[in-house]
């Protein structure tokens, strides 16, 4: 059986298609539908994933890892019990946990999954998720873009010609996808996203406000007290969630510090209005992205038939108000629990792949332009942002000097107006070329997961070479995946 996995910044969940062909969320051993994406190292042989791990962040912050999804695809190391772990290695513990409780619940070993990723995830980030799953012994049947998953969960009729905007405002990312359905096919018209805009940023404005208020009011500065800060972060998130249903909330944290007057307790009131003022910049950023995604597709708000709200942060009333103001005429869909809609869509995709559900054809687009650096140091795009995938594209290159027998191909990707290097391929020929004699074709392939493969070929001599972009960070350290997997398997996941 193939399950669906929503690997979230803050929470993860697993889903499946039940006997009535309905997508369902699997509850974990605590009977809860969302499992915090938090990993706590109890010692060097045992890790705990989920709710208990989250509660340890107060007590043992140096052994607790939060928000690993934000680091996936980066050259970053966590140092725990004198051992280094890359973000995919940490994420693999989360996948092992999800795999375990899904297998227990379904009473069979689960090894295959559809895993969702933000539409805006670049090649390194997608590779990072694939690696994490592999290290957890999971075969990824498909990496599905999160907003596309949300549209699948709503089971929108693809034969109707309509424009659907999916807004997935989660814990760490805000992802926007504009879909058009027509003749039974969903096409992604444009995507936008900010991998650093999410619920945590709303928590942060409250944290800063609390620190500022107690400093002004009582002269207490807790900005460098890590244990106190953790408690403040918890209280801030709780206050934010409260303010989605009530107009004001009390933030009470007893015994947070001691000063000359004895124990110090935080007891302040935050109103929804004040919170909305504090978050004005974040809401502005969100609105700007919405207008940009429409502009990229040359559409106005009036041309959007439906707006799907996904992600816990979409529950913030000021955000909902912003949406209603922009989309006065559109139907706003929010009946499916926004924390679960992505996972449910992943189950639908799994059901389609297994042949249990009717196929809906989905065409996603590349979210970053990919290309190479030529000898003059200029970026030459090979696959443009907005191209449907799977796809491939080829460009010809030559050498620039006499007596040359090798060329270096640098593969780059545009990311927020910067160029990020994805890898290098040195093509060495048995023959020496005169200046501009070589005929090297460079082909970029993007597979169904949005993952890139690059092949260079000397057309005169027929030699091919593939650039291995896979798992760049492990390769840097020359580590073999199977060995790494064996090493990680020695660590128990509870
Ligand atoms: N009622 C609520 N009001 C405001 N925010 C909420 C509410 N419920 C949950 N959240 C926030 O939603 C966020 C979690 O959302 P969700 O579970 O969709 O994120 P995620 O899938 O883990 O993250 P991402 O999709 O960014 O990777 C948290 O920041 C949480 O505080
Ligand atoms: Mg999410």
Describe this protein's structure.
It contains twelve helices and 29 strands. By secondary structure, the chain is an alpha+beta fold. The longest helix has 20 residues, at 87-106. The protein is globular, with a radius of gyration of 24 Å. The two termini are 23 Å apart. The model has no long low-confidence stretch (mean pLDDT 90). It binds adenosine-5'-triphosphate and magnesium ion. Residues 6, 8, 146, 168, 170, 311, 342 line the site of magnesium ion. Magnesium ion (MG) binds next to loops.
Topology:
Layout (H helix, E strand, L loop, with lengths): L1 E6 L3 E7 L5 E3 L9 E2 L2 E5 L2 E4 L1 H9 L4 E2 L12 E3 L2 E3 L1 H20 L5 E6 L5 H13 L3 E7 H8 L8 E8 L4 E9 L2 E10 L4 H20 L7 H17 L5 E12 L2 E10 H7 L1 H17 L9 E5 L6 H10 L4 E3 L7 H13 L7 E5 L4 E4 L5 E5 L4 E2 L1 E7 L6 E12 L2 E16 L6 E7 L5 E7 L4 E5 L4 H5 L4 H9 L2 E2 L1
Parallel strand pairs: 1-10, 6-29, 10-11, 12-17, 14-19, 17-18
Antiparallel strand pairs: 1-2, 2-3, 2-4, 5-6, 5-7, 8-9, 12-13, 13-14, 15-16, 19-22, 20-21, 20-24, 23-26, 24-25, 26-27, 27-28
This protein binds adenosine-5'-triphosphate and magnesium ion.
